[in-house]
Specification:
Elements (H helix, E strand, L loop, with lengths): L1 H18 L3 E2 L2 H11 L2 E7 L5 H11 L2 H10 E7 L10 H14 L7 E5 L5 E5 L6 H12 L2
Parallel strand pairs: 1-3, 2-3
Antiparallel strand pairs: 2-4, 4-5
Length: 147
C-alpha cells in the first residue's frame, strides 16, 4: 500500500511539473534564454486583477493544455502585469521594468496586449484577447512568424 501511495504522489508531481507553465517576469533573463534556445518571446501585457479580457485570455487560452504544450516547445513567456489592487502591488524594480516594456512595446496602453518578439526583441506581431479556441489562437500566433 505504501509503495502505491509513493508512486501515485511521484506520478502526480511529475505530471504537474511537465504541465507547469513558466511565465518570466525578468525581461533581460527571458531575452538571454530566448537567444540561447533560439525561441521567440511571447510578451503579455496584463491587468491581472482588473482587466476582464485579460482574465478571460488567461483562463481560456493560456491555461489550456494545448497552449501550455505549444508554448513550452516554441516560446519564452514573459508577463508584464499592471495590477491595481494594493495587495497585488509589484516591487518598485518590477514596476519600473514593466513601465519600460510598456513604453517600448505598448505605448498605447492596450490591455491585454500580446506581443510576439523574435529572440532579439524585434516585434513579429501583436494581438489581444480573441473569443476563440486555443488552437485558433495558436494558429494566429504562428501566422505572425510566417510574415
Amino acid at each position: 500500500m505504501r509503495k502505491i501511495l509513493v508512486l501515485t504522489i511521484a506520478f502526480f508531481a511529475i505530471s504537474v511539473t511537465v504541465n507547469a507553465q513558466e511565465w518570466n517576469t525578468n525581461f533581460k533573463e527571458a531575452q538571454a534564454q530566448a537567444s540561447n534556445e533560439h525561441k521567440n518571446i511571447l510578451l503579455v501585457f496584463s491587468g491581472s486583477d482588473w482587466c476582464a479580457p485579460c482574465i478571460k485570455l488567461e483562463k481560456s487560452i493560456f491555461q489550456s493544455e494545448a497552449f501550455k504544450t505549444f508554448a513550452a516547445d516554441n516560446y519564452i513567456l514573459v508577463r508584464a502585469d499592471f495590477p491595481k489592487r494594493k495587495k497585488n502591488k509589484l516591487s518598485q524594480a518590477q514596476q519600473e521594468q514593466n513601465n519600460q516594456l510598456a513604453a517600448t512595446y505598448n505605448s498605447n496602453g492596450y490591455f491585454p496586449l500580446v506581443v510576439l518578439l523574435d529572440e532579439k526583441g524585434t516585434v513579429v506581431g501583436k494581438t489581444g484577447y480573441k473569443n476563440t479556441t486555443p488552437k485558433a489562437y495558436i494558429e494566429l500566433l504562428q501566422s505572425f512568424e510566417k510574415n
